[in-house]
Amino acid sequence: MKRSFCLLAVGQMMAGTAAADPYPFEGFFALKAAGTAYAGCGFDILHQSRSGAFSGYILDRRHWEAHGTPRFVRYKHGACTFDAASGIDNCVAHVNHISEISDKRDRAKVTVLDGNSVAMLTLGEEDDPEKLSGVPPFVFQRCPFDAAQIAPLLSDTAAEYSKTQLQEMARARDAGVSVQVLEAIRTQKTAVD
Known about the structure:
Blueprint: H1 2-13, E1 27-31, E2 44-48, E3 53-59, H2 61-67, E4 72-83, E5 88-96, E6 104-114, E7 117-123, E8 138-142, H3 147-150, E9 154-155, H4 163-171, H5 175-186
Parallel strand pairs: 4-9
Antiparallel strand pairs: 1-2, 1-8, 2-3, 3-4, 4-5, 5-6, 6-7, 7-8
């Protein structure tokens, strides 16, 4: 359950809605983890648009195992509003097929570390980021592919999967598979059935 909340919060924090302040980054990102570089990018990716809309995509394991080609299904989407003065991102997931949470508001302190990485500290409704200075943030890194490479591999629907099946896909992290998926994206072995 903690992992589902983490994924929801992360996805929601990766986005920014049309706001008074422009969102500070855009593109395809994944949670940075120890081990294989960019491992998250072959498994669970978040698309942040400058407009504020965000979408979370998870590797379609059944498709990968059947065809040996990557495909990612969109399991969540929503929008955030970024306040540049405070660095606080206020987000709402409109749909999340894994946790079935929708229209739940989340907050995060966002710090752009550089052009390829962003740190986010999840905040409760009343939390002050300054008082949480000892809490480590989640760090997201830009994935090593561009929109043209990944766009043909994205499916906007998870309708063919039940909530249970999506939850199983979310738990089935495998560094070896992630490396293979990233190589398939890089070498354009991407025919989607």
